[in-house]
Design a protein that fits this description.
7 helices, alpha/beta, RraA/RraA-like_sf, Glucose Oxidase, domain 1, magnesium, elongated, RraA/RraA-like, metal ion binding
Length: 222
């Protein structure tokens, strides 16, 4: 039934790509995706550990209800990240200390919650990456409905189950499974180019001629 279903993961990003993305800044990956994809500035890292790279298990739930998140915890594989479309609602927390503790016990990679969490003192000090839109002490309902492993969207960023989710202190980003290898190559090149620029800055030889060239192109002569 649409709105109440559990689907299989049709394909997963390759484990070697998951590992390869761990050291690549999310901002560089975002630049290589034309700066067009993002889960919005509301989703912030709320845990001590912010580095995340993992295949997505997707959950779509009624705002304030976490029944399907509990089920996702049961069926996710070690190394998966649970990504929840909770509609951005902050009235009720969707996860807290108990669920994050259980996720760690099961070897999961983290949570991305388009909604609220609670028990921030514990989650904030923890090593499990948790990204969320807010915090509230009010707990969740557990009645459903919801869907697991259907496509979801967070602020326009579409996530299919098995897609790569990466995160750091700048936020989270979904890299489509079929595009991950090409995006990784581009992001590595971007990172190398930035290292060259940093070296030029350190040596006092950064070429900034492009600034006046751009101003001239748009009609301003400096």
């Amino acid at each position: 039934m649409l709105g109440l279903r559990i689907l299989p993961v049709p394909r997963r990003v390759a484990p070697d790509l998951v590992e390869a993305f761990r050291g690549v800044p999310v901002a560089n990956v975002s630049d290589c995706m034309s700066r067009m994809t993002a889960a919005g500035a509301r989703l912030r890292p709320l845990s001590r550990e912010t580095r995340l790279s993992a295949p997505a298990i997707t959950v779509k739930t009624r705002p304030g209800d976490n029944l399907m998140i509990h089920k996702a915890l049961e069926i996710a594989q070690p190394g998966d990240v649970i990504v929840v479309d909770g509609g951005g609602d902050l009235s009720n927390a969707l996860i807290g200390e108990l669920m994050t503790t259980y996720a760690i016990r099961r070897g999961l990679a983290g949570f991305v919650i388009d909604g609220a969490i609670r028990d921030l003192d514990v989650i904030g000090a923890g090593a499990l990456p948790v990204f969320a839109a807010g915090v509230t002490h009010r707990g969740p309902y557990k009645d459903g409905p919801g869907e697991i492993n259907a496509p979801i969207a967070i602020d326009g960023m579409v996530i299919h189950p098995g897609d790569l989710i990466i995160g750091d202190a700048d936020g989270v980003l979904c890299v489509p499974c079929d595009e991950a290898a090409a995006v990784l190559d581009a992001a590595r090149n971007k990172s190398q180019a930035e290292q060259v620029t940093l070296q030029q800055i350190a040596e006092g030889r950064l070429d900034t001629a492009w600034i006046d060239q751009t101003l001239a192109r748009i009609g301003l002569r400096a």
